[in-house]
Structures are given as C-alpha cells and as structure tokens.
Structure of Replication factor C:
Amino acid sequence: MQKPFVELYRPQTLSEVVGNQQTVERLKYFVDNGNLPNILFSSPPGMGKTTIAHCLGRQMLADQFKQAFIELNASDERNISDIRERVRTFAQLQVTLPVGRHKIVFLDECDAMTSQAQLALRRIMEDCGDSTRFILACNIVSKVVEPLQSRCCVITLQPPSVEDIITRLRQICEKASIKAGPEALRLLADLADGDVRNAVNNLQTASLALQKQLTEAGIRDVLDFIDVNQVGKIYSAAKTRFDEGHSQLQKLFIEGYSADEIVAAFYRFGMNPKTVMTDQTRAKFLKAVAQCHARLAGGINSELQVARMLVEATE
C-alpha cells in the first residue's frame, strides 16, 4: 500500500517549507546560532506546525535527531503525570550533542490540555531546562495560559498563499512523476483553503484515480466538492428570488455537504477573481461569509446560519 503523500513527501529541511518565509528565516537563524528557545507555534490545522517542528529539530540535532527528539500529543496522553514521566525520562537520557544544543520535546495540541495541566507543564519545562528545549503547538493560542506562553517564543503561522501551495504541489508532482497542468494545480490549491495537507491529500486522491494524468476536468469529476459555479447560480437566484436561491442551497445539505463545506465554497466564490462583483458588493459578500464562519465555530445552528449568510450576502 502506498504511503500518504503528506508523509512520503514531507519537507525535511526548513528550506523546503513553503510560505511563512519570515518565520522560516527566523528559525534558520536559531539553527545557525545553535541556541534554540522554547517555542509555541500557533495556527489552524494544516498550516505546517508539525512539519516545521520536525525540520527545525532535524537541522538542530543532525545525526542525533532520532535519539534527541521526541514527539508527544497532549490529546493522546492520559494525564499530565504521563507527560511528566515521559519528559523526565527523556531529559535524563545521555545523548552526545554539539556544545549549546539541547534535546527537543515536541508537544502537539497543547491547547487541548486543562489550565492546571498547562501550569504543570510550565514547571516541567523549568525543571528540564538545562538539558531540554520544548516546541509546543496549538490551534488556538488564547487557550494556552499566559504563564506557559511567557516561557516561549510565540510564533503564529499564517495560511500559505495559493501560489505557495501550487509550488508545493508542483514539487511533489516532480518527485512522484505526476503530470498536472497549471489549471489542475490551481484548482487543488483553491480547494485547499490554505490547508497544505488538504491539498496534498487531494493531489494523491486525484493521482490514483486519474493514473497520474491530472487535468482540471478530471479533478472536478474525481473530487467531491462544491464548484464555485454552483455557488454562483445560488447567489444569482437568491438576488432575483430568494426562495429559489434558498431551495438550491438546501439541496447542498440534502446531498450531504456540511455547513463548513458550503461556507468554504462561498468563500472561494467571493475570492475568485472571475466572480464579477463591485468592490463594495464583494466586501459585503465576504463579510457575510466571515460572520457565518464565526457563528458556526461557536456551535450555533448550522443550516439556519448558512441561510442567514445567504440573506446578508444578497440583500
């Protein structure tokens, strides 16, 4: 069975990372200087936190990476005692490293820990500071207590641009001997909504189905997504007669699409340069989409909020 592309073609060095170039250069400085602070990476899923942490650890530790780097996931550990025991055991390991270098603990999803557990983690970091550095990762930085943040260099990763994602997909296509035209790669990048992992997974799915011959039309046939043209029809219908547009919107739910998928499709439609809108209309449309996204994140009734989005976008 073929390994997932996200693992098979994961960047191995910071130079291979696309997007967040200022952050990457800053991390390269840490490598060149040989002195790594504790770091807290923050971003939504799929922005490269784990990949960057591994690249940083690999370049800091070189041949000792496997012995001097450990990855833990806060959601996998039963309690803070498990993490404390594993970290302290790891910190006591005797590993020969260049002067000034430290073993590295990478703890993912630290925002899933309780506040009490995070405060305990802060004490663990202090106790092991002589031999070990910590790279933490979270999806929502506001869920990380301030005392823990203050022990770290907080780095917020930004979503890569469409062009950044296209660059990464093109690199993988070259390594995997996949033929893909520019329109096909752009479609995959557009569908990713800034999530590189999503784009790479879709690339692999399309590659398997289309026998490594990717075209825009082929991808549309293979991948189950809401096309911006569908959104355009809903938008146009709703502006003329809202009941008709709302009926078409409801069909998307009936077909099994989630509220998040529908909102993402509306966002792609609003951001698409081929969508004909005045600047004022586009701003109003995207504001309605953004507000709907925020309400959905708060757990409010999804179908009702998507319908509200359509009202606000077309009124």
About this structure: The radius of gyration is 23 Å. The longest strand covers residues 132-138.
